[in-house]
Amino acid sequence: MPRSAGSGRPRDPEVDRRVAAAAIGLFGAEGWSGFSIEAVAKRAGVGKASIYLRWPTKEALLLDAVRQYVGEVTEIEATSVREELIRLALQLFRHYLGDTGRAAMRLALDADRIPAVAGHWAKIRESQILAARAIVRRAIRRGELPEGTSVTLLLDTLCGAVVNHVHATPPSAQAKLADSAESYARDLVDFLLPNVS
């Protein structure tokens, strides 16, 4: 978390925003090995001192940026398992696209090397599991999925397909991918459901 401003000049929220955006963009592009206060300062167009006044370490800066930009999967409830899985897939698309998406992918690789961030990343992963588990339980209660449906296989297939689709799409086509996400999510769920029900 940024430090409190104390009795000095009030902090400029625009600088806070630029630094956090630069931090998440840099981490997405370079990973933890290329992440430094100096590089974030250069990318944000601010002095290193401005960053150190707000964040005492690069770990604290990255954690704050991750908290702002890489959110947890929220609870999903609709009238059918199909609609719920489509909504989950769309949340995952938003999670993995753009600068934030590249950072989320890097977190999957680097989070265990960054103790300050590891716990938050674990919460994000857990939110995906809990959302999928709730969807499966409701679907079983409604008779849409059989007892014993594997949450793990369902989540691995859905999440893996979304992540692979984003990862395999060249950066130049990412904007187009965002426009077609809903269509892909529907096709993916329609392909997946007959194999688990």
Automatic annotation (TrEMBL):
Which superkingdom does the taxonomy of this entry point to? Bacteria
Q: Does the keyword Secreted apply?
A: no
Pfam families given in the database record: TetR_C_11 (PF16859), TetR_N (PF00440)
According to the UniProt record, which residues make up the DNA-binding region? 36-55
One MF annotation (Gene Ontology) recorded for this entry: DNA-binding transcription factor activity
Which keywords belong to this entry? DNA-binding, Transcription, Transcription regulation
* Gene3D superfamilies in UniProt: Homeodomain-like, Tetracycline Repressor, domain 2
- Domain (HTH tetR-type) ranges: 13-73
Record's protein name: TetR/AcrR family transcriptional regulator
Q: Which organism is it from?
A: Amycolatopsis acidicola
